[in-house]
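Help wanted!
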Amino acid sequence: MKILVCISQVPDTTTKITFTPDGKALNSVGVTFIINPYDELALTKALELKEAAGSGSVTAITVGDASTEPNIRKALAIGADEAVRIDAQPLDAFQVSAMIADYAKDKGFDLIFTGRESIDFNGGQVGGMIAEMLDWPSVNVINSIVFNGNKATIERDIDGGREVVELETPMVVSAQKELTEPRIPNMRGIMAARTKPLAVVTPASSELLTEVSTLTLPPAKGSCKFVDSSNVQELVDLLHNEAKII
Amino acid sequence: MSVLVYAENTAGLFKKATFEAITYAFDIAGGAPVIAVAIGPASEEHLKTLGQFGASKVLHVDNAAFQNFDARVYARVVSDAAESINASKVVLANTYSGKSLAPRIAVRLKAGLVPAAVELPAANGIKRTVYSNKGFADTITKTATQVISLTPNAYKVEGGKADATVESFTSSVKASDYKVSTIEVKKVSGKVPLTEAEVVVSGGRGLKGPENWHLIEQLAESLGAATACSKPVSDMHWRPHDEHVGQTGITIKPNLYIAIGISGAIQHLAGVSGSKVIVAINTDKEAPFFKIADYGIVGDAFDVLPKLNDAIKALKAAN
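Answered by r_m:
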């Protein structure tokens, strides 16, 4: 089984988000960047699928400048066989998807894995866009995937429940939390990662369909109105008469 | 120009997120026709009511072969419909299905996509949430056609318009184009889906164990609310992971979010800060949740919850 896992680099989940004064970019001073948590699940599941199949390879791919390399090395340390960095600044889901689809189109992948969304832009677009560009089927937000030959049985989240679907490779799927537990790199993996191949690819083209004009923070919340715990009725009155919410 | 809305349905029934998307489409159309497309069997009576929210016409793929969701197939149907009416904008609800479809439609139509939109277009573009609700990005599309995926509960539903006409629609897609076969659908019956819930009651470690969750469930039932939980609670398997709200869980924006026994880690607050009104109940008066809450009670969940439930039941009974 030949699997491509799309990795995006995002601010650590504990980051207090602020933007540059012009509102054009994240203020990255002091921010630690990590592998997007959902992508880490995708990577771990890809390794498990390869191991279950008994053969194959897992390639980690990212779009980014050289500053993303520590996280790509981490993907190799976790267990990816090889890594690819498309040397471009990711600015738009269409641009990123087109670059990855262009790389993947003639490499014979059976499966392309993404996270359900990146925790920075939360668009959840890249998997679906790659799938459409390659004209492959896609299944989003999956909780389990089991292969029998080239046929996968997948359980995915839907609105108000779950659904079990079947489809054949090639396909694009996106990882949800329950899929697996992230794998922590061990010392042997970290040593091996140093010598695993990391190819840097120059993209053929870079076309943007969208642009972020301004980044803003949510308005500051007013102060909390406290109600005494012996007077719960007052809270209900406030919610009913003041907030008019119940 | 015209605006196409994807009218998502479950076994012929439409839901609030779809009505929000149609209302939104009507409000951005500026008088241009708003046309809905619905896939799979649905009664004419239900389809016509989509007009109440602003669709003048419903294109209906009235074919049981298209009942099951395959993102590739559905995206082709919606894109064909968009092309057939020469739509300059396509609007969807940002549900699980909408999130699967929107990127595929955007590629097919070579259209800029604004996912998780929360407001009407303005001079700076369309506001969408980013960094799991820790920020917003005004997004501009650089294309002739635009796809907008609207966050549920972010926009009003406005009915009271005229019924739509219903027209049968046949796209270039055939049933044999299906690549995904649906084996089983496990709907959680009688439960409000968390992402669409207007009221959410959420519990954290302060509840001390899964055996105490009936307190959360009873309050939720009294309020007609969905239940949710914090990450530690889902990590300890007290509750299923699909109830976990926060940065690595589900992001929600209900009208009312009641957090009980959740201290308010930054990742959790990110997932719920878009809620219109937040109530926090916690024994620790320094809990970070009180910094973003509108109303707070410093107290023990086991003491406060039964009283709160009784008071809400009394209010509901009186109204």
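OP: Thanks! One thing I noticed: Chain A has a mean pLDDT of 96.
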